[in-house]
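Supplementary Note 3. Input sequence used for the single-chain structure prediction.
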Amino acid sequence: MKEAIIVGGGLAGGAAATLLAQAGRPVLLLEREAEPVDKVCGEFLSIEAQHHLARLGLDLDHLGATRIGTLRVAFGRRTVETPLPFVARGLTRKRLDSALLDRAANAGARIERGFTVRSIAPGRIDTSRGELRSDLLLLASGKHEVRGAGRDVAGCDAGYVGFKTYWRLPRRARTGLDGQIDVILFDGGYAGLQMVEGEVANLCLLIEKSRLAALGGNWAGVLDALLREPHAAALLGDAEQCSPKPLTIAGVPYGFLHRADPAETAFRLGDQAAVIPSFCGEGMAIALHSAAVAAAVIGEGARAADHHAILRRDFQRRLRLSIALQRAGQKTWSRELVLKTLRLWPGVAKHIIALTRIPSDPTDGRHHGLSPRR
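The predicted structure, written as discrete structure tokens, is reproduced below.
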């Protein structure tokens, strides 16, 4: 049986390694970080992501995940609350990714940390520790591009910069955020705030590059502008930022969806397959779903092109709606409309959320009319 080589040890890579190893396939996973690290991520686990993690055998309660049942949207001095159609969970990527790699190792996968993949070509991987060869490659490098397998991001929404910090909130603010995820709309972007394990709040913020430049091009200017928003000030004004510098990322190609290429041999997972706007909270579900599809397709003996075609059918409509919503959120009048609509018809939020959800059922080639190609 062919050995699978997986590039990247995040959610997509860890999930794929676990599933393939459980199926009896030899797996080598290459992770560039020597130790678990924090990542720019909202750390919101939707019900779909939770279903995938449960199938992988992860116990979110044991890992300390918080429970989130309410969405609160704030714009200026106005806020509106609406119940989520499911109970979401909050858990740091550092803890979740580490637990998933442990799960993969226990299933029989070989996990090698501190490996930098410099380039890939059909059947060949050039790394910081020499060349590796395999006809079965899964690319799960997240937002990091790998030479020889760049993404075609033409037409994507890449004009944003993302920031992520952890905060220790005063008891009153922490109690007010308990069981909720807050989305704070502001000029040029939005922020998400929720509790994760250890009584720490995760603040993840996305801002247009032009607005960032107007604020001085640095985190201090962005934070000052955010704290001028009444709702953010009430929660974070007396809070303690856990680290002096935020994690930062730029140029994320929101709306990217990989096209199936009959000649392609690498299976793309996670952000290498599709990138959904952050406010949807489905980025981790995409990573886990793509891993499940890849494992099923490989088990059926089908090709990488079949895998990508399935993902395109599963993701395309949801990505289009999500991008339309993100672009609408850039305009003041549309933000006003969102708040008015949610206040008058709270149930609308559930319908919008349902339309942007990623499938959570395992998918295999038989369900999509694929025939094995061995």
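The longest helix spans residues 304-328. The mean pLDDT is 90.
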